Amino acid sequence: MRLIAAMSGGVDSAVAAALAVEAGHDVTGVHLALSPDRQTLRSGARGCCSVEDAHDARRVADSLGIPFYVWDLADRFREDVVEDFVAEYAAGRTPNPCLRCNEKIKFSAVLDRALALGFDAVVTGHHARLADGELRRSVDAAKDQSYVLGVLTARQLAGAVFPLGSMTKERVRELAAERGYAVATKPDSHDICFIPDGDTRGFLARRLGEQPGPVVDAATGATVGTHAGAYGFTIGQRRGLGVSAGDQRPRYVLGIEPVSRTVTIGTAEQAEVDEVVTHAPTWTGRAPQLPCRASVQLRAHGTPVGCTVAATEEGGLRIEFAERQRGVAPGQSAVLYAPDADRGDRVLGQGTVLRAGERSAALHN
Fold first, then answer.
1. What are the residue ranges of helices labelled H in the chain?
2. Nearest 5 degrees, angle CA 60-CA 162-CA 187?
3. Which entry of 98, 101, 292, 307 is annotated as an active-site residue?
4. Catalytic residue at 292?
5. Which pairs from 228-231 meet CB under 8 Å and 24+ separation?
6. pTM of whole model > 0.85?
């Protein structure tokens, strides 16, 4: 096949490109320039898209003897990922920018351009598997990225190649070292790539300004404090609330009301929900017949839980958990997997959480 290798400058994408070349494919390397200020330097494992990353990607491409280009998608990334991230927090929701980047950038903008240029697919260093066109978990559970790929459609998956899903991260680094790549020991990126200092609250404060409001304890109905911006909180958050309850029981964020700027907190029991309702789902293949049983994962490195999935009248999904869950926020992605009886590693699709449980529904109405 003629493949575009998305080369971030990290070890995963380097080995994925190398394996594609060694498999006999016609590969062209592409580094995505997503930051408007690419002359900045990385700080350890934080951030990405720096001038160092571009140089690291080019060195690997040179060693493979493949063409290498830089595609400037900074404007598209700013609009579809960064601005979406800010707008979601401003609306009291909790987005996942990595999932949005896969949906809007890597497997929309990049894949569409690759297909238009006559390429067959895009190869990436994601830790996930494709088997008979179905998206499945990586064999390395600790590095599995199927959650952030759960938003992809069957068409997008048909244009994707994931060579690393059948190996561990340790093996990936061994393969890079065997080929003499300097990135073999490069730290993995973590946190949000466009917030390299890791200070999400500070980033949002600079974008949205100070927006003070009350912190209300649902257990007593009393206002127990104030805050400088509701966007600095997420559902389920326990630390950094800046208030203390009279009974000394831990408090968690239960709800965020952006209009009144009210942050509602409560006990661990009040933070638990037994179902979510989502917006219209996207399916990675043929839509399952509903209602059905499945497993659901609510965050990138969360523990799957059994569930029952049914359609709502509005075209979304109602997902009932086998065990009550804590910290489920509007804006999160509820990624569905086949039930354990079907190995539990096949991704069915996902829905973006609209509301979680009766308690959270009441808080958001």
1. 11-22, 51-64, 74-77, 83-90, 97-101, 110-116, 146-149, 154-158, 169-178, 200-208, 357-364
2. 50
3. 101
4. no
5. 229/201, 229/204, 229/205, 229/261, 230/92, 230/256, 230/257, 230/258, 230/261, 230/262, 230/263, 231/89, 231/90, 231/92, 231/201, 231/204, 231/205, 231/258
6. yes
DSSP code for 316 = -
Within 165-304, strands assigned E span: 213-217, 223-227, 252-257, 262-266, 272-278, 282-283, 292-297
Percent of the chain with pLDDT over 70: 92
What would you report as the CA-atom Rg of the chain, rounded to the nearest whole angstrom? 21
State yes or no: is 193 an active-site residue: yes
SS3 content of the chain, % helix, strand, coil (to 5): 30, 30, 40
**Catalytic residue chosen out of the listed positions 49, 193, 292, 307:** 193
> 119 falls in which pLDDT band (50, 70, 90)?
very high
